[in-house]
Amino acid sequence: MEARTRLSPALLGWLLAGPAVLFLLACFVFPAAQTLYLGIGARTEAGVMQYGLTIENYRRAFATDLYWRVLLRTIRMATSAAIVAAIVGYPLAWVLARGRPWLSRTVTLVLVTPLLVNVVVRSYGWSAILSRNGLISWVLQGLGWEDPPAILYTEWAVLIASVHVFLPFMVLPLAGAIGRIPPSAEQAATVAGAGPAQRFLRIILPLSLPGLAVGLPLVFSLTAAAFVTPQILGGNFSPLLGTLIEQQVLTLHDWPFGAALASLLVAMVLLVNLVFIGIIGRRINRWAQA
Amino acid sequence: MNTTRRALLGTALATPFVKPLAAQQREISVGIWGGAQGDYVKRQIIPAFERDFGCKVLPEEGFTLANVSKMRATKDNPRFSVMFIDDLAIPIAKAEGLIAELPWDRMPAMANLYPRFLYEEGFGTALGISLGGIFHNTRVRPPESYAELWEPRYRGKLKLVSPNNTPSMFFLIVAAAIETGKPFAEAQYEIDKAFDRVAALRPNILNIFGDGIQAANEIAQGQADIGLVEYSKYIYPYTNRRAPVTMAFPKEGSFAGTNCQVLVKNGPHQDLAVAFMNRMIEPAVQKGLSEFALTSPPVSGITFAPETARWIAYPVEEMDKRGLFTPDWTYINARRAGWTERLNRIFSL
Amino acid sequence: MSDRIPWPLGLVTALLLAIIVAPLLVPIAMSISDTPYIVFPPEGFTLEWYVAVLTEPEAQSALLVSLKLAVVSTIGAMALGIPCAMALVRLRFPGRGLVQALVLGPLVVPLIVTGVGLLQTFSLLGLRGAFLQMWIGHMVVCIPYVVRSVSGALATADPTQEDAARVLGAGPVAVFLRVIWPQIRPGVAAGAIFAFIISFDDFAISMWLADARSFPLPLYLYAAIQRFFDPSIAALSALMVFFALGLVLLIEKGLGIGVRRIAS
User: Fold this and answer.
1) What chains are in contact with A, requiring at least 3 Cβ pairs below 8 Å?
2) Between C26, C111, C148, which is nearest A217 by CB?
């Protein structure tokens, strides 16, 4: 007993994390690295892959404005989706954490439903709502706007559809965090005369940061990696980098260039994620010490 | 069949780290298409073949674009014996050493194959040809010429095929033909001149579609008037069931969309694989496949009832009469990446 | 302790829920249309598309494969993910930053890269058996969700309670079961729900690894759409929703109080 509790944090840490780490090294890092390596280990001529060290793929990715502009769009879109999901997610998370059981359950089920409907099938629904003769246009026309712009087949449609399906990845962690805030804290604030806005900023927001540290990276990464939604709902006018990677691999049979684009995306998204998690983690610590 | 499948699944689940016992009979995996063609192969052709040869054929109905990638990924230890791929991918698969030459002597049905449907001097045969053209809602009168599609009256009313799909190369050839006034066969070598013409079409395009079936549905529901360019095999099944969408072939000509089969190099049980490929091009099988999927057979000597004949271009003289055009894929493959980049730049920035 | 929901918040919630559901009603409406192809709004009314889907043996076996796959992948991802999350949140050990990045990896690497890489690796090793391959692949993509969700829960749990229990002589197992587990249950439930749905809905990994014997539902659905888009596709989608929602409820129940509540 004594001995076990005296296990050094380093040893215990590796004992606990070890199985997952080994599994991911063998079944994720090795396979993915094998593919990503092609970015410097091969190049494609007329669809035919030729091995040999080269920097040509990266040179092309950086030299062509198309790719870095689409990369920037990808980061912009993923950031927007994460922020919108957080804004939309807070009220839902609060209701989920504090509402009556039937209400919580309803919110949870409604939230996860979009994930279960195939994206092609789902897109028919969006088409009926967002297209030129869809529901929204109809309402806007009724309100006196003569020729409202169609939302379908624009970047907006991609944003809306991404938030729609990835929202549970924001709300469930947020609800978990809000659920751990003692209701007495909010009541105390109310007694002290704090309005709803102040209660949110002073109590709920800082105390739910751990939930945000889960939700933001998930929504950001999922949106950044999406490749079907931009094609179907964005009408292919504003593809994200994932779409172009898929095009390189499946259509042009150019795995090496696809690998180069993919590694740029990975580096970018991982960087943003670790910064996110780092900043929020520091906040949490600062608050814990205070 | 279903019970054995379930039993096998059960075994796989119960003893995840033990391979299921090798079946008594020999087994080959065939990477097939989805769609009506795949359906017919799975439900009709394969069961009959299994009976005749006492073997098991596992049809892997894949994401069609992924079949070449699957061969490439499993190159060192092939899992597939036969793969169905598009005609344009055959030169690539051959150059990478993914496929083997077909043994003529063991494929008697090759005698009836039209020579134009044998690829790369014997590295693949066609299985079915469908027609590439435009599709439109039946309440819209289709244009006589592709050139009309550039007119302002089509503003926001067209759906254009995505550069991810082969017919997008047909679209580039069309644009080059309009730009230069030359027939497809010459225009295909002048695609580089056509990109201003391509960019000029942008205001007329509602969206760029990746899935012909979804586009056909949306045209049928009136979301847009015309879609370009797509294979008849995706559209005619809807026309046939009286959905308000059909194909049209402007006067510049139409394209041959050719689905092919190849023999995977070093794939398991090559003898069975060869027998299966031979079966695929036998006249009786081809007739059934063509009638079901509404594609034209690549072999001679089949007669069709009028209700099938109206959907397909057959025999080969009829294909020529309709100006069915097969592009120079070797030329196009070498340039496709660059053209795709230019298309992306026009439509996606 | 359920608070009363203030009415503006109730209104916002109702509105948001309506927006989330709205686009899903269209496919459900299409599934009852009495036409041989899909239309919206639907024409006529029939339930024959549901009968057609439910009696199709291939759809049944695809559903079975997907369910089994989702269950074993969720269990596997939790078994590896929960201890890993505990190490990441509670312990400062060398290489912690790297592990942090590693468990995010499957989330940030495009699935097409992971899928092709897995197919290549399995081919290299001569590993056959599509179900096993998909199980491994799905575990890979599910682990980040479990680790992130459980980490979030652990970060809000109170470490002083653990210390107190330890001081009072509780062993590590007892500390975990009595003190930590009740606090992280909501996070575990969220992670399990995410893992289950990600696996049940996966197309991008299965597309490379499936074979004719183990052909999961999302691939079946895709193939069916390619064959012919009739209202049975919409019916199948609606059924998928009902099935999975039932299972989500089960997960919630199975983990006790579920996502909504901390242990009292």
Assistant:
1) B, C
2) C148
